[in-house]
Write a structure and sequence with these properties.
The complex is a heterodimer of chains A (389) and B (132).
Chain A: E1 2-9, H1 21-36, E2 45-49, H2 53-56, H3 61-68, E3 75-79, H4 85-98, E4 104-112, H5 119-127, H6 142-157, H7 161-175, H8 189-194, E5 197-199, E6 202-203, E7 212-220, E8 234-242, H9 257-270, H10 275-278, E9 281-283, H11 289-298, H12 305-310, H13 327-330, H14 335-351, E10 366-373, E11 378-385
Parallel strand pairs in A: 2-3, 2-4, 9-10
Antiparallel strand pairs in A: 1-7, 1-8, 4-7, 5-6, 8-11, 10-11
Chain B: H1 17-25, E1 28-33, E2 39-40, E3 59-64, E4 67-76, E5 79-86, E6 93-97, E7 106-109, E8 120-124
Parallel strand pairs in B: 6-8
Antiparallel strand pairs in B: 1-2, 1-3, 4-5, 4-7, 5-6, 7-8
Classes of the chains: A alpha/beta (389), B mainly beta (132).
Organism (chain B): Hoeflea poritis
Protein name (chain B): DUF35 domain-containing protein
InterPro entries (chain B): NA-bd_OB-fold (IPR012340)
């Protein structure tokens, strides 16, 4: 078991103030450090999440951030798994503690996905996060690959674009109560349907934005947290898995099999036998609206996911609220920070300290964060729980 | 601050060399596992039978007709792309559609031109005639 003693995150948006990723990472780290009620000299390891040096123009970012944070001398490393980088870093930090190699670990994710490069340049670079030889260099976009996966998903299970549009609306609506969110929009399903077609079935409002931002956690061994933080939420399960990198090599291009593997491993570690009954909140990887529904299916959050989705089961007032932060579509998607920010949302919800309009009246006892890189190729799931009884 | 970085790569094609050479000429060169006969286009580096040691000698090359059936298709700002099954292949291929205004369930491979690594296809409403 690993305690999450402190959390911090910046706003996710497109920075226009001349600040850079080192500023955002420092802000998130300092907030988490204060929340954890420990000093920087108490930290003995730093794990940094960032997807690409192309975005930041900084190779070996852990080296500069450890120096910026005043952590010279600590063990430091960078974790990368494409879109899953943030959760991969959380897992790396938790593993350091579980293995006994560290007692207090800072996990910091960041990405300047919005303001450093043009959207067209970032979109092209994203293409190389799939199989660069058969996908990236062909010019196919991330949206087109996700769209092809969505088409297979829709053909198999009967989901429609109306379902996807409902998710796009719901996540942007939640973002309106999240002061750190990139896209708080009051929109309707008609707005989604009327937005520009990017890659059928995905329209502009079905897509997550390119965002700048950072998020941080302070993880500790249960015996290494300050007395005042020993009842804080904890990581009780981590699980990772992978799938064939190319859609065409999968038995079902519409099913996120790697995510199912990651979830099963995380649930087993956390002692979760019935995820649809035991989990009270989920932050899932909604790079596109349909991907949220594909994630709910693969994570085993329902025995009849489409019917339950349509009945409001995954809404704020439902049995298992999903993406109350707004998800990637509403809160934003600075890649390396995304998975860490999901953890921040889960921990604050369990702690009862989340944004007032989004905090669940009965804080969940168990929450999960789910991210992936590629089209659910590199998958990572983390289970968070409240204080043990 | 403005900053520009221009990179000029020279990429090693390795085991994909014959496949890429075929694409440039409009030839569908698939990889075939010598043990289970699974045929893949684009080629897999390791076979799903997982009985091979992934050495080049474990695989052979097989020329397909270059015709395919569209399984899923998406169109939009970036053009048209499809998941298609090439006749004789056991996996699906992501293909760039050269004539996205055309509707149809059939496709044939084109020489790639400037999109050398891409599987580029022309769509048709009727199956293309093939020369055996």
């Amino acid at each position: 078991m690993v305690l999450v003693a402190g959390t911090g995150m910046t706003a996710f948006n497109r920075r226009k103030d001349g600040s850079g990723f080192r500023d955002w990472a420092s802000d998130a780290f300092e907030e988490a450090l204060v929340a954890a009620q420990i000093g920087r000299s108490d930290i003995d390891a730093l794990v940094v999440a960032s997807e690409s040096d192309y975005f930041s123009m900084q190779l070996n970012p852990a080296s500069v951030l450890s120096d910026d944070f005043g952590l010279s001398g600590v063990s430091c490393q960078r974790a990368e798994g494409g879109g899953a980088s943030g959760q991969v870093a959380v897992h790396a930090g938790a593993t350091l503690i579980l293995s006994g190699l560290a007692r207090r670990v800072a996990v910091v994710g960041f990405e300047p996905s919005a303001s450093y490069l043009s959207g067209a340049a970032v979109s092209e670079l994203y293409g190389y996060s799939f199989d660069a030889w058969t996908d990236g260099m062909s010019g196919v976009s991330s949206t087109a690959l996700y769209a092809l996966s969505a088409k297979a998903f829709m053909a198999r299970c009967g989901a429609t674009h109306d379902d996807f549009a409902a998710i796009a609306v719901q996540n942007r609506t939640y973002a309106c109560d999240n002061p750190l969110a990139h896209l708080p929009l009051e929109i309707t399903a008609e707005d989604v349907r009327d937005s520009t077609m990017i890659s059928d079935p995905y329209r502009r409002l079905d897509c997550s934005p390119l965002s700048d931002g950072a998020a941080a956690l302070i993880l500790t061994h249960p015996d290494a947290a300050p007395e005042s933080r020993r009842a804080c939420p904890r990581i009780t399960g981590i699980g990772a898995g992978s799938d064939r990198v190319r859609l065409g090599d999968r038995s079902d291009p519409g099913y996120f099999a790697g995510k199912e593997i990651a979830a099963r491993r995380a649930y087993a570690m956390a002692g979760i036998e019935h995820p649809h009954r035991q989990i009270g909140l989920a932050e899932v990887y909604d790079a596109y609206s349909g991907a949220q529904l594909q994630a709910i299916e693969a994570l085993g959050l329902s025995e009849d996911f489409l019917a339950e989705f349509r009945s409001g089961c995954f809404a704020q007032s439902g049995r298992l609220p999903v993406n109350l932060s707004g998800g990637l579509m509403g809160q934003g998607a600075p890649v390396g920070a995304t998975g860490v920010a999901q953890a921040v949302s889960c921990v604050r919800q369990i702690d009862g300290t989340y944004h007032s309009g989004l905090q669940l009246r009965d804080p969940p006892r168990v929450a999960i964060a789910d991210t992936h890189g590629g089209v659910a190729t590199v998958c990572a799931v983390t289970v968070f729980s409240g204080e043990a009884e | 601050m403005k900053y520009q970085l221009v990179l000029d790569y020279h990429l090693g094609e390795g085991a994909l060399g014959p496949y890429l050479e075929g694409l440039s000429e409009g030839i569908a060169l698939a990889r075939q596992c010598r043990r289970c006969d699974r045929v893949t286009f684009p080629p897999e580096r390791n076979c799903t039978c997982q009985s091979q040691d992934n050495l080049p000698a474990s695989f052979g090359w097989k020329t397909l007709a270059g015709t395919a059936t569209i399984v899923h298709r998406t169109d939009g700002l970036g053009g048209g792309y499809a998941l298609a099954r090439f006749d004789g292949a056991d996996n699906l291929a992501v293909c760039r559609i050269d004539n996205p205004d055309e509707e149809g369930a059939y496709a044939t491979l084109l020489a790639t031109g400037e999109y050398r690594p891409a599987i580029t296809v022309e769509i048709s409403g009727e199956p293309f005639e093939t020369v055996e």
